[in-house]
Structure formats: structure tokens, C-alpha cells
């Protein structure tokens, strides 16, 4: 099948490599000209404008957008609309907010252009291992593009999740769960690091990957990271978030679902960004005021 890829970062570029290996014809576009030139070296066609990308694809077209959520996705779609024809399909493979995806679906439906929201997990390991793909939108559009998802995913690694927005909804909750898992590992390994034992943390992470009930791919990645640098001294403990955890928590609030683990995991990411916590200073000051407890000075 023909696939146009907009956004040739690590995931978009690797996706094209995986598609090429399975015989798909690909055309890639990126604002970074060098990324397009590098793409041509692996036998994909390149395009230096959206118009050129569209012109190199036969109708009905399948165009995968792999750019950051928010304004970049919105602007890309708005620029594509006048270039596309009835029956073409736009696939948003990024981490867009599911309500934005529903709105974009409705907007494109009026133009008789199909829209699939595709939650994609796998990161930089997707080229080797495949991507876990969650797809929402019209079933007819999904069926038309299914060979793309089948190539990108490992066995049993893709699923049609239902109506518009559902793919990004499922991926949103997926990432919220990921927050909780990562925070739990982080806390457990910190406890072991400050214990009275001289523990081989990398070895323990590897050990737990063999038949332990807490084994996971995240734990394998942690073992790799600790083997490279056992105390992680070169890494600053500053943890950003890209929105999915916040959206998951808001959805939990809206649906009256208690989600304390995911919520506290997000709060810990916010804590990581503070060089000096004013709230901690307030706590220390209050303890001093009511109980005369010692205060450490700067």
C-alpha cells in the first residue's frame, strides 16, 4: 500500500523503514530537509512540501501524521485539507487529546475525508519490536488502511477500538497507567539504593525480569539504564509530562473514578521540576512556629 508520512523524527522515520521492509511504497515529508534527504537513502521517496507529498500518492491516499500534538497536528491537517480528495484518509499517530480527535473527525467528515486517531506505543524500539497500535474512527477507513497497521505492529499488536476518538482515548489511559508503573519502580529502587545493603540494582532489575510478578519491558529498560550508569549521576531528576497523564486524571474526575496512583505519579513529576520547594519551606516554618522545631538554614 502507499503511505505518506509527515514527520520523520525517530518514530516516523523508523515507521517508514518498517513499512518499506514489508513492501509498502512510502513518501516522507519533514520540515527538516536533511531528514527527507536521509529518507531517500533508504529507498523511500521524499517530498519537500505537503503538495509534493500529496502529488506523489495515488488516490485514495493514506497519510500518516507523526508530529507533536496540539498546534502542529492542527496546522498540518488544515494545510492538507485543500490538497486532498474524497476518500483520502488522514491518520494521526501522535498523542493527541481524544476530544480534539473527535472534532477533527467531524471537520474532515464534512470534506468527505476520513480520519483515524491512532494511539501508538513502542517508542524508539518500534523498528525492531513493532508498535502497539490502537485505532479509532470509521471501520471502513480502518479496513482500508489495515495493512499499514499490520505491518507496523507485532503479532496481535494492533486493534480497532471503535468510534472516533477511541484510539487516542485508549492510548491516553495507557500512558496514565505507565506513569503509575514508572513511579512505583522509581520509589522501590530508591528505597533499595539508600538501604544498609550494597545492592546490585542493575542485577536486581534484570533478576525481576525472570518470572517475577513485577516483570515488564519497563523493568528491562531500567536494567539497561543502570548497567550503563549504576547511579545515574549524569541524569538530572527533572521529569516532564506530555499531557496524557493530566488528561487521564481529568477524565477520571469527570467520570467520578478514583485514580490516586496515577494522580500522585503526575504530582511527583511536578515535584521533580522544583529546584527549591516553597511549600516545603512553609512546612518547615510552621513546624518551627508552633513547636519550636529546628529549621535548617540556606
Word description of this protein:
This protein is an alpha/beta fold. Helices cover 51% and strands 13% of the residues. It has 13 helices and 8 strands. It has helices spanning 10-21, 33-40, 50-55, 71-80, 98-109, 126-129, 139-152, 166-193, 201-207, 217-228, 244-254, 260-272, 278-291, and strands at 2-6, 25-29, 45-47, 62-65, 89-92, 114-121, 132-136, 158-162. An 8-stranded mixed sheet has the order 3-2-1-4-5-6-7-8, with helices on both faces. Helix 7 links the parallel strand 7 and strand 8. Helix 8 (166-193) packs across helix 11, helix 8 crosses helix 12 and helix 9 packs antiparallel against helix 10.
Write the layout of secondary structure elements.
Layout: E1 2-6, H1 10-21, E2 25-29, H2 33-40, E3 45-47, H3 50-55, E4 62-65, H4 71-80, E5 89-92, H5 98-109, E6 114-121, H6 126-129, E7 132-136, H7 139-152, E8 158-162, H8 166-193, H9 201-207, H10 217-228, H11 244-254, H12 260-272, H13 278-291
Parallel strand pairs: 1-2, 1-4, 2-3, 4-5, 5-6, 7-8
Antiparallel strand pairs: 6-7
Helix pairs in contact: 8-11, 8-12, 9-10
Offer a quick outline of the entry.
The protein is α/β, with parallel strands linked by helices and 298 residues long. The chain contains 13 helices and 8 strands.
